[in-house]
Amino acid sequence: MFNAIVIDKDEQGQRAAVQALDESQLPAGDVTIDVAYSTLNYKDGLAITGKGPVVRSFPMVPGIDLAGTVHSSEHPDFKVGDAVLLNGWGVGEGHWGGLAQKARLNGDWLIPLPKGFTAAEAMAIGTAGYTAMLCVIALERHGVTPDQGEVLVTGANGGVGSFAIALLAKLGYHVVASTGRSSEHEYLKRLGARDIIDRESLSAPGKPLGKERWAGAVDSVGSHTLANVCATTRYHGAVAACGLAQGMDFPGSVAPFILRGVSLLGIDSVKRPKADRIEAWNRLAHDLDRDLLAVISQEVGLSQAVQMADQLMTGSVRGRVVVDVNR
User: Fold this and answer.
1) Is the per-residue pLDDT at 12 higher than 90?
2) pTM: predicted TM-score of the whole model, two decimal places
3) Which of 111, 121, 130, 203 is the most buried (most CB within 10 A)?
4) Which domains does the chain have, with CATH numbers?
5) Which residues have a Cβ under 8 Å from the Cβ of 42 and sit 6 or more positions away?
6) Helix 274-287 vs helix 159-170: crossing angle, to nearest 10
């Protein structure tokens, strides 16, 4: 038997709670994992609270991230005792995920735990940090360099935003953070933000083109915010878009793209090829100030995760939530 958060749905609605399950109930897969840590991401919050159509079948164990050791394996790349890591691949949406003491998965979805990282550290980074690194790599490949000017990070208090600030600052960029919480200014400065702007300046409907300011940007908000960021990005700049906290719509114009040559770089982390995942995690091992993990993350037990998901959806959680599934 093992413990897991299970999301059920019936005629009375959707609910999530910690349940004891038998290993025989695990879904099909060629690698079984003894999970050590998982996380709470925005998508997990949507799944647990039912505030978004994330879960595709019930019952479902949420958790799009996990780190642990191989319990049994029929996959040629992994053997018993290997330390492994998973981000995405629809786990926690259509396949039972990491908010459990055990998981059974397709071995093609796994990568080895990067050298130098503990399972807890890897989950403090999680999909949020991995996605932020993908955004930074995309901006670099587009040619955005520190000497070109300010780089904006929206959704700065969230997981992706926090890591994007830390990574860009470490690489020498002039980072401007957008937040709606004045109480978090000290936190954002500690991560490396040089300047902070109020998110209200970006979140309302704007003009097709605004004054050029940003050499590049990392946006995890979407909707009007993304449209306004694109409208104020400098000639031949780039915006890496990876989230939709404000909405899925894009109420903007083609003007920034055809008049200023701005590029909108879509960042998918869910089905990213293994080579890209390994590159991103190797960069995290090199470019991330690991001392900041204690600043960015907090740890809870599995029994606390359901309540924490509610707090996550109200925007009252800073940074990352690491879940020790064994307490």
Assistant:
1) no
2) 0.93
3) 130
4) 2-113+292-324 (3.90.180.10), 126-266 (3.40.50.720)
5) 158, 159, 243, 245, 312
6) 60
